[in-house]
Design a protein that fits this description.
heterodimer, A: 657 residues, alpha+beta, 3 domains, 20 helices, B: 255 residues, alpha/beta, six-stranded mixed β-sheet, globular
Chain lengths: 657, 255
């Protein structure tokens, strides 16, 4: 009987506080929905059969992890806000004679009910939207996917356990909150005045140092492997720095403004500054979270869109020609060329810009103007990754035949074209000094047989002997010092003809197993991977955006409650409703622009790192990435403005007389 | 010319669908001369608060007029109401209505800030006002750090700092203990002696006995008036009690 009483009390409380609990329930539902969607795809048996499905799986796992982390942060933030709001109510129960454990029990019931509702709604939504989701993935992957849109018990179970665990933590937190406060304090709740926060300069300096350190790392890093390794460290430092700076820096700035009496005692600034200063402590957490989430949304969406839009660029980077094949003898090379003509004719495609050449391929390390073998352990470390080069060695004669360009190299001169960022200025081999001539472009790009994320470097040497001299330094086995015979060409023709031709080429024994690369088939694989990236990117971006919106909403509503009485007093004392609106707008504008500004700064700061990491996928065009990222940032900012506009209206309605 | 001229005020509240009409004020007429200290008394529901809200230009009467120095409230446009209130009227509320985000000093200065005064002038006015109200040394404290009486005196300082034509007070002693209430009323009397016109709504006969004139409101009308005149405060207090008793008897036996 009594048990039922507490339960009914809990239900009643939820209903009474629906204005704040409904957003909490909605947020929980959406988070559960996101988690379920990620897990359901992850556990789907059909995923393994998808091309690029394995890579996709890794990204999904990462996505699920991020959603989980974010859920934890958000639920704690929202819950602590809700509990703070209800201290008075809990105090009343205490004064009416309810024991603390009973209050805690009511709170426990409330959260359990919320959890159950959110689970049912979230999973229900997940199951319903499954088909739509799979359709989306199929479109993104551009291939028929054998994924099945079933109900995944495994995903439901994992989601349920995960969120149950989170809610148990919330229940524990709430019980502790009730235990460590006495009824009178609870009853006074939010009324007890909060001390104006002190500016902690040490925190501000630490925050600045952390943020500066993160930024420096992002700027100083020169190679993609180091970028990946340092990425999480840098991100962590910037996140921590952001929180610290918001906590202490904002207070310090506001106090400085307040100290300037001529500035402070103006109608426009008076209410805004004191109001912000008063609640800066709670404000800071919210603002910093908004800034971080906003940054994450911008970066995720920006990079994925850049990657997807840049797919063709990346493909071109890896595969400059439609077809390429690398063989080990000139006879095979000649045979291929002859055979290819018949195949093309049969399929009805035209061969264009066909090049046949021989060259050496090797991997080496440039260090201090000297060449070393790449497999020496020292160069496997992250910092030295930038010294590794995937090299194609051509003689001057071959280069001239290929491009029609005469370099007229001296006997101790080497021409060099490289994608490396670290400049190579000098070259010395066994005491002999070689002059380096940097080429800015290659008129015809000779294909390398392997695609790699290392620097790509093309070296044009005056004679065979120079090439052999380099190879002796870099390759231990003699067969690796033999020339490779490459044929590369483009084809033009109708889509069907191209497909037919590709199939014919791929099935020829002379072609098969000789490093044959057909761009059309590779493209499919490429989109399978990057379509997945896009999907995950957009999905994660949406989760981050959703988080931003929810935090803004919670912030505004909570402040609306606090400010309601304040603005009524101000109006009684003689502030016109116009002035109130101007003050509200000013306060909101500040709160709106501050995190957005920080987010854009973070995005700009992370750009170098993003570019390096994207270069692993072959996307090297920095302005292109920058434009895409900032376009995404602009989109996010526009959406952000919409949220804010909406919540600001709600806020104004709450505080107006 | 009277400072405040209240003529035939009537206020009818209508429920949302117009089904029921509640007459809060039937016909209220009185004048306030400059330098007077008026107390308005009446039972709950007699229309005191409605009257005060109308006098504060927070609410408009259904019919009738309020003139401040010959200028009718209805002439003031809605957009200028706030400025009009700020420049001409000062308010003291029962529950202080201080802003917890401001220090005592900033709470007092608030109306001046809204009036766009210079920092120098703010300082000048604050300096003369703070010691008069016994708030010296509290300027940098926040409302939650001071007592109820100090809060109410802060509110009085905030109301007086603009040199209003009329100071309006709504149950100013309602939330104070008797000691703090007495101190506040003495302060009101002092302020009145220095020339400030005051109009106060109150339940408390004790508080009303400091006034120079007391208006009793019943059923939306001015039912009776008492003049302080030459009587002592004690005698006035006895008269007020007698009147209140008579009022609750339905008005029989008033001389």
């Amino acid at each position: 009987m009594t048990k039922l009483l507490y339960f009914r009390l809990a239900l009643g409380n939820l209903w009474k506080n629906r204005q704040t609990y409904l957003p909490f329930l909605t947020a929980s539902t959406l988070l559960i929905f996101s988690m379920y969607s990620f897990l359901m795809i992850t556990f789907n048996p059909g995923l393994n059969k998808v091309r690029g499905g394995v890579q996709f799986l890794t990204i999904l796992m990462f996505g699920a992890f991020v959603v989980g982390l974010f859920s934890a942060i958000f639920l704690f933030y929202a819950n602590s806000f809700l509990i703070k709001r209800r201290k008075r109510e809990m105090g009343l129960y205490g004064i009416l004679g309810m024991e603390k454990k009973h209050i805690a029990r009511v709170l426990r019931h409330e959260l359990s009910v919320t959890w159950l509702c959110a689970m049912l709604l979230g999973i229900g939504l997940g199951i319903l939207l499954t088909r739509l989701l799979f359709l989306l993935i199929r479109l993104a992957l551009r291939v028929e996917v054998p994924l099945v849109g079933t109900v995944s018990m495994q995903a439901i179970l994992v989601t349920a356990i995960l969120f149950a665990a989170l809610y148990v933590l919330l229940i524990i937190y709430n019980s502790l909150q009730v235990r460590f406060t006495n009824p009178i304090e609870l009853f006074r709740g939010g009324q007890t005045g909060e001390k104006e926060p002190k500016a902690r300069w040490s925190f501000a300096v630490l925050g600045l140092a952390l943020m500066g350190g993160g930024y420096y790392m992002a700027q100083a890093v020169q190679n993609p492997m180091a970028a990946i390794a340092l990425f999480f460290v840098a991100v962590l430092m910037v996140i921590l720095g952001t929180y610290l700076l918001f906590f202490s820096g904002s207070i310090a700035v506001l106090r400085l403004l307040k100290r300037n009496r001529r500035y402070y005692y103006q109608p426009r600034h008076f209410v805004t500054i004191s109001g912000m200063l008063y609640r800066m402590k709670q404000n800071a957490a919210g603002l910093a979270s908004i800034a971080i989430l906003c940054t994450m949304a911008m970066v995720t969406i920006g990079t994925t869109v850049a990657m997807y839009n840049g797919s063709e660029k990346m493909l071109d980077e890896y595969y400059p020609f439609d077809m390429q094949i690398t063989l080990d003898s000139p006879q095979a090379q000649a045979a291929i060329i002859a055979q290819n003509e018949t195949l093309a004719e049969d399929a009805g495609v035209t061969i264009q810009s066909l090049h046949a050449f021989n060259a050496y391929e090797t991997t080496l390390a440039f260090d201090n103007g000297q060449i070393f073998r790449a497999d020496v352990m020292a160069y496997e470390t992250i910092n030295d990754y930038g010294k590794l080069h995937s090299v194609l060695l051509l003689t001057e004669a071959t280069y001239a035949a290929l491009t029609g360009e005469l370099l007229a190299l001296e006997a101790n001169e080497i021409a060099l074209f490289t994608t490396a960022r670290e400049p190579i200025t000098a070259l010395e081999m066994e005491g002999d000094h070689y002059a380096l001539r940097r080429l800015d472009t290659l008129p015809v790009i000779p294909c390398m047989s392997s695609g790699t994320s290392m620097n790509k470097t093309y070296m044009i040497v005056p004679e065979e002997a120079t090439a052999q001299r380099i190879l002796l330094l870099t390759e231990s086995s003699p067969e690796n010092r033999l020339p490779r015979y490459t044929v590369q060409w483009n084809i033009s023709g109708a889509g069907d003809a191209r497909a037919q031709y590709a199939q014919a080429v791929a099935s020829q024994t002379d072609f098969k197993g000789h490093n044959l690369r057909i761009k059309d088939s590779l493209r499919e694989e490429w989109y399978a991977l990057h379509g997945g990236f896009l999907f995950i990117g957009i999905f994660l971006g949406s989760v981050f955006l959703m988080g931003t919106a929810l935090i803004i909403y919670f912030k505004q509503i909570s402040e609306g409650y606090q400010d309601h009485d304040r603005f009524i007093i101000l109006q009684k004392v003689g502030m016109s409703s116009k002035e109130v609106r101007a003050t509200v707008r000013r306060q909101i504008l500040l709160v709106f622009f501050l995190p957005l500004l920080v987010a854009v700064g973070h995005v700009a700061g992370s750009l170098n790192m993003m570019v390096l990491m994207l270069s692993l996928f072959g996307l090297m065009d920095v302005p292109y990435i920058a434009v895409n990222t900032f376009a995404a940032a602009l989109g996010v900012a526009a959406l952000y403005w919409l949220f804010y506009h909406h919540t600001a209206k709600t806020y104004y309605r709450m505080v107006k007389f | 010319m009277a400072l405040l001229d209240v003529r035939n005020l009537q206020k009818v509240y209508t429920t949302r669908f117009g089904a029921q009409k509640v007459q809060a004020l039937t016909d209220v007429t009185f004048t306030v001369e400059a330098g007077e200290f008026i107390a308005i008394m009446g039972e709950s529901g007699s229309g005191k608060t409605t009257l005060l809200n109308i006098l504060a230009a927070l609410d408009a009467p259904t019919s009738g007029q309020v003139l401040l120095e010959g200028r009718s409230f209805s002439e003031v446009k809605d957009a200028q109401k706030a400025a009009f209130r700020r420049d001409n009227l000062g308010f003291v509320f029962q529950d202080f209505n201080l802003l917890d985000t401001f220090s005592i000093r900033d709470n007092i200065l608030l109306p001046l800030v809204l009036q766009n005064r210079t920092v120098a002038e703010m300082d000048r006015r604050l300096e003369s006002l703070v010691p008069r109200l016994g708030l010296s040394g509290l300027e940098c404290k926040f409302p939650y750090e001071v007592s109820g009486g100090q809060k109410q005196r802060t509110a009085v300082a905030r109301a007086l700092i603009t040199d209003p034509r009329l100071l309006l007070a709504d149950e100013p002693t309602g939330a104070l203990d008797s000691k703090a209430a007495t101190r506040l009323m003495r302060m009101f009397a002092e302020i009145n002696q220095s020339g400030q016109t005051l109009l106060m709504v109150t339940h408390s006969a004790q508080a009303a006995s400091y006034a120079s004139r007391i208006l009793f409101i019943k059923d939306g009308q001015v039912f009776h008036q008492l003049y302080g005149g030459n009587t002592t405060r004690d005698a006035l207090y006895q008269k007020i009690i007698a009147t209140l008793t008579a009022l609750s008897d339905g008005g029989a036996g008033i001389d």
